[in-house]
């Protein structure tokens, strides 16, 4: 579930009636009316809104594992594939300036199965974290200068915050953490502990 920047729509992926895949839908938060956005033969999932709410980056699985694709919501239904790579690519969050997307790269059999990468809109990618452990659930701060994410470098999932222009990541969770989300002004970070308790 991803809330649009203006709070008026929610993007979700919905299982197809035959159970063979998922498509993206947008729900109006005021009326509850839903609009179907994709019509894939396999899977469309992991949508994240552009800052202006005019596009969605999502994982499109059609000819193989999911790749990062942008769907423009200008009435044309135009799509563009930003990244094709081995394994599964899942976009997680669009930067506030609209210039890059943080995504998860998943490859089974690799020690660090889940890695976080930054993808610019021209298709260039660079890895965010350097530890030989899984990292995921990346989320830009509202000012775009920091990234909150989950890393398993300590043996279990913990929430970290790292400056994007160099600097040492800082662990902020004490007893595990998942799904970090920033407050709108960037002064607070919310996340879930593995036991289901929400902390700020």
Describe the structure.
The structure is a single chain. By secondary structure, this protein is mainly β. It has no helices and 19 strands. It has strands at residues 2-3, 9-15, 22-28, 34-36, 43-49, 55-61, 67-72, 79-83, 88-94, 100-106, 114-120, 125-127, 135-140, 146-151, 158-163, 170-171, 178-182, 189-192, 198-199. The strands form 5 sheets. The protein has a 4-stranded antiparallel beta sheet, with no helix packed on it. A hairpin with a 5-residue loop joins strand 18 and strand 19 (198-199). The mean pLDDT is 93.
Q: Which characteristics define this entry?
A:
single chain; 200 residues; 4-stranded antiparallel β-sheet; globular
Cα-based radius of gyration, to the nearest Å: 17 Å
> What is the mean pLDDT?
93
Compute the number of helices: 0
Largest sheet: 4 strands, antiparallel
Q: Show unreliable segments.
A: none
**What is the number of strand segments?**
19
- End-to-end separation in angstroms reads 20 Å
Shape annotation: globular
Strand content: over 45%
Sketch the topology as an H/E string, one letter per element. EEEEEEEEEEEEEEEEEEE
Kindly name the structural category.
Answer: mainly beta
Major beta sheet, strand line-up: 1-2-3-4
């Amino acid at each position: 579930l991803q809330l649009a920047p203006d709070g008026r729509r929610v993007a979700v992926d919905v299982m197809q009636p035959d159970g063979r895949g998922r498509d993206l839908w947008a729900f109006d938060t005021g009326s509850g009316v839903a609009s179907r956005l994709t019509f894939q033969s396999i899977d469309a999932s992991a949508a994240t809104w552009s800052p202006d709410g005019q596009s969605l980056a999502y994982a499109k699985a059609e000819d193989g594992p999911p790749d990062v694709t942008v769907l423009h919501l200008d009435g044309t239904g135009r799509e563009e594939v930003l990244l094709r790579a081995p394994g599964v690519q899942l976009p997680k969050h669009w930067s506030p300036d609209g210039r890059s997307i943080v995504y998860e790269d998943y490859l089974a059999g690799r020690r660090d199965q889940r890695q976080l990468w930054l993808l610019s809109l021209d298709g260039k990618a660079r890895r965010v974290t350097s530890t030989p452990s899984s990292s995921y659930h990346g989320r830009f701060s509202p000012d775009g200068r920091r990234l909150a994410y989950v890393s398993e470098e300590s043996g279990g999932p913990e929430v970290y915050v790292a400056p994007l222009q160099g600097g040492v990541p800082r662990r902020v969770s004490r007893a595990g953490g998942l799904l970090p989300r920033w407050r709108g002004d960037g002064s607070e970070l919310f996340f879930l502990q593995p036991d289901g308790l929400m902390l700020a």
